[in-house]
Specification:
heterodimer; A: 253 residues; alpha+beta; five-stranded antiparallel beta sheet; 6 helices; 23% strand; B: 182 residues; mainly alpha; Rna Polymerase Sigma Factor, Chain: A; Arc Repressor Mutant, subunit A; 2 domains
């Protein structure tokens, strides 16, 4: 946008009026058509963020012209498109990561990971981290005593199977394909809505049996499990610090 | 898209906004072929169009929270993301337009099946585009469907770019008056 003599704007040195003020609805229509030139288009996009009336004008044109978009013949995309989307979406949540070397490994771990086969863990909550974890959706009925969670790695082989046996107070963890980055530990957390995550212990390559802390034994129906990457030996001070790489709701068996 | 599909799509977009990747997959299955068709009409290279489609769904993932179900049906919202991505890519690459204009989009509007567009909106748009002066209509349809720029339309009609801009604005004004009167 060029800077004008300041006659129109509020105060000295104000910019010339934007190109769209004379005909905002026409400019919105041309923005939707795609015929604004590069400078106009960039200026219009910036203005859209701050101007609800322009957004409304754009939405109205999108709705008016949409039947014309529907005339495009549908084409089946190559499978690589979805694979690319999935990889980018999986890589996105760990922007809050720690050191550079760890980041590369964790991104690799994240790639190809699918959400838990059961349950409804929200990826946006993954991004927000454990402290902001929100458990959403309907809860299983609270009358069972055996719970199961499965991690799907995107192929046939789950990364982790977690079975919680409340009668015995045991958590059985079968680590099938979980990858632990070198110099790090994977730690399993029990998360109950509204309270701080509680560590259930570290996950190693071997089959593990962990003990459910006694004060948590009635809470399983409302619980989410999450696995984080922590410094070797576990989270310092019992508080999760690393990115969540697996998560899922416990489902009653 | 049918009205019942609209409700399903709106629910899916809202689940995507909550970070539900299964909903993203379902939304992709339901809409990716149509969105790829929209992109491919503008970005004529198949590989480039599929790259754009990938960016479109990453953007949907990031921006699903901004979809307002009370602000309109989901298809125009999705189509807009796809068209803008396609037009951005087309303008960045500044590739010369290789193919002739496809003449049939307006005719296809009348032929859309029941499942492909809201019938009342479709009929109103077809009727009102028909009422727009032919040269203006040609510019509107080629710009919207195939991403023709003012300069390309100027060359096609052998008129100055400013004339094309005037045609586009007049065409839009006429179209809007007509649609609001229907």
């Amino acid at each position: 946008m060029s800077t004008g003599p300041g006659k129109f704007g509020p105060g000295d040195g104000a910019e010339a009026p934007p190109f769209w003020v004379e005909d905002p609805d026409g400019a919105a229509g041309e923005y939707v058509l795609g015929t604004l030139d590069a400078a106009e288009r960039a200026a219009f996009v910036r203005a859209l963020d701050q101007t609800p009336a322009l957004r409304a004008a754009v939405a109205a044109w999108e709705a008016r012209l949409a039947p014309l978009a529907a005339t495009a013949p549908a084409m089946e995309p190559d499978p690589r498109v979805w694979a690319g989307i999935e990889a980018q979406v999986a890589a996105h949540p760990d922007a809050q990561d720690t050191d550079a070397a760890g980041t590369a490994r964790i991104v690799r771990l994240e790639r190809g990971l699918r959400r838990w086969r059961f349950g409804a863990a929200a990826a946006s909550a993954l991004a927000a981290g454990l402290a902001l974890w929100i458990v959403a959706g309907p809860r299983p009925a609270p009358d069972g005593r055996q719970y199961l969670a499965v991690v799907d790695r995107g192929g046939a082989l789950p990364a982790l199977i977690v079975r919680v046996d409340l009668d015995r107070g045991r958590v059985h963890v079968r680590s099938l394909a979980a990858e632990t980055p070198p110099d790090r530990s994977l730690e399993l957390w029990y998360i109950h809505a509204g309270t701080a995550p509680r560590s259930l212990g570290l996950i190693t390559d071997a089959t593990e049996t962990l003990t459910v802390p006694s004060d948590l034994r009635s809470d399983a129906p409302d619980a989410t499990l999450a696995v984080t990457v922590e410094p070797k030996g576990g989270a310092p001070g019992g508080k999760a610090t690393g990115p969540v790489i697996y998560s899922g709701r416990l489902i009653r068996e | 898209m049918k009205a019942s599909d609209d409700a399903d799509l709106a629910r899916l977009i809202m689940s995507v906004a909550e970070g539900d990747r299964t909903a993203l997959r379902a939304l992709y299955t339901a809409t990716a072929p149509k969105l790829l068709g929209i992109i491919l009409r503008i970005v004529q290279d198949r590989g480039a169009a599929e790259d754009a489609l990938q960016e479109v769904f990453v953007r949907i993932w990031q921006r699903a929270g901004s979809y307002d179900p009370n602000g309109g049906t989901p298809f125009p919202w999705l189509a807009a993301i796809a068209r803008h991505k396609a037009i951005d890519r087309l303008r960045q690459e500044k590739v010369a337009r290789l193919t002739q204009a496809e003449e049939g989009w307006l005719e296809r509007l009348a032929d859309l099946g029941d499942g492909e567009a809201d019938l009342a909106r479709r009929d109103a748009l077809a009727h009102c585009l028909d009422a727009v002066e032919p040269a203006q209509r040609d510019c509107l349809v080629l710009a919207y469907c195939e991403g023709w720029s003012r300069e390309e339309l100027a060359a096609r009609h052998d008129r100055p770019v400013n004339t094309i801009k005037t045609w586009l604005r007049r065409g839009l004004t006429g179209l809007r008056s007509c649609l609001e009167a229907v």
